[in-house]
Design brief:
50% of the residues lie in helices and 11% in strands. It is α/β, with parallel strands linked by helices and 208 residues long. It has one domain (8-20, 28-80, 101-205): SGNH hydrolase (Rossmann fold, 3-Layer(aba) Sandwich). It comes from Paenibacillus apii.
Length: 208
């Protein structure tokens, strides 16, 4: 069991983490996997008095997390830091021509991990981005996203972080049901998609 009494679990990322959280409520978890994870852990371990924060912001890229990391991560003193970022880097390239290279993405991600290591004694859990081939989505996204997924996996190994391998899990799930069942636009998970993320996150964190 990796979780300890009074642990503080922070979820960081973009809209897939945000999912409608209330910006005026510091403890709002939104309506996606952070809420589901918190609910499951709260049910299993009420005696541990766990605290959960969600600081995902829709549209954010790793560069945005770098700018707000002091306020939205380090100041909260989390003992667990979950980072889920990377899909907007591809989105912006194909939507507006604003490209983030894999090298730039890696440098920004390292910035987050290094600052976290220097300031906190926190466990790291890295969630790799995914994309599914649904109608209307530019399938060339894989060309841009795959190197970024490789970066997340590389950094998880290098920093001894736990890895949530979503890309393969969503691809496997899409054999059971149409990709749009899991993410209607290929990017933003449905409730079933968020449940898949929740299960994978808990498994990575050692919760059966």
């Amino acid at each position: 069991m990796l979780f300890k009494e009074n642990d503080v679990i922070l979820f960081q990322g973009d809209s897939i983490t945000d999912v409608g959280r209330d910006r005026f409520d510091a403890y709002s978890l939104g309506n996606g996997y952070p809420l589901m994870v918190a609910g499951k852990l709260g049910l299993l371990y009420p005696e541990k008095k766990l605290t959960f924060y969600n600081r995902g912001i829709g549209g954010d890229r790793a560069a945005d997390l770098v700018r707000r990391w002091d306020r939205d991560c380090l100041a909260l003193m989390p003992t667990w830091v979950s980072i889920y970022v990377g899909i907007n880097e591809s989105w912006c390239r194909y939507d507006s021509g604003d490209e983030t290279t894999a090298e730039a993405f890696e440098a920004q991600y390292r910035n987050l991990l290094d600052r976290t290591r220097e300031a906190l004694d926190a466990k790291l859990i890295l969630v790799e981005p995914f994309v599914l081939p649904v109608r209307g989505l530019n399938r060339d996204w894989r060309e841009d996203l795959d190197p970024k997924i490789a970066v997340v996996r590389k950094l998880a190994r290098e920093y001894g972080a736990l890895l949530v391998p979503l890309d393969g899990l969503f691809a496997a799930a899409s054999v059971k049901a149409d990709p749009a069942y899991w993410a209607e636009d290929g990017v933003h998970p449905t409730p079933a998609g968020h449940a898949l993320i929740t299960e994978a996150w808990l498994k990575a964190a050692g919760v059966n």
